[in-house]
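Bench notes, afternoon.
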Amino acid sequence: MTTPYAPPYAEVIGDPISQSKSPVIHGFWLDRLGLTAAYRQTHVTAEGLADFFASRRDDPDWRGCNITAPHKVASLDHVPDPGGVRDTIGAINTVFRGADGTLIGTNTDAAGFYAPLAAFDLEGAPVAVVGAGGAARAILFALARAGVERVTILNRSPLKAMGLLATFGLKGDAVPLDAPIPPVALLVNASSLGMTGRPPLDLDLANLPEDAVVYDAVYAPLETGLLAAARARDLETVDGLEMLIGQAALAFELFFGKAPPREHDVELRALLTA
């Protein structure tokens, strides 16, 4: 008797997960390339994280997963880390199968975050970052590599934020969320504040210079309160889809062995914002 063919699949996990646009992105690329594969979204709680990886490890059709909040740090405890991500970024957003079938944790957030900033000269520039979670770790890693000057982290726990500055060898300050934004060249929201279903992010942008860039990693909604406030001041903005699509492109190739068709990015953005 012939065993029915099961197409390979990957997925995104998180808690919550309904807001994720990753299935649309990966599904779009799979369709454009004509690949017989699937990409799903799966709600996984903190309590169910270990069981999730245990079950997927033994599934021959599973190619890996993207990881969103709040599992980017905790997932390091459940998959191998041959690239030493724990000691560098300290969080993973992607798990894939190596050539021998073993699971490998990695992080595509840092490269995805930095791609839309490549045209800006950030060396020696002052920066402010909101948040100190898994996404913030990847963003601070990228900013350290870019050679930024002082970094101000706004977070509920300044002590935790101060630890991140030390981790990435950055000079700067850790302050509460309600502290004034300093006159920085780049302001990044690396928290979930402003996301659909989460509390808003209410920041006063009055201190930002006219040539400042405001970057919000939140993509649901795409037009966040932070970006609306920045555009009201005619500041340069970068929305969350830039980072989302950038990190997804790197993960897609790890899952399915093909580079995504980035020549269709305009069409993809239109689909994601429809």
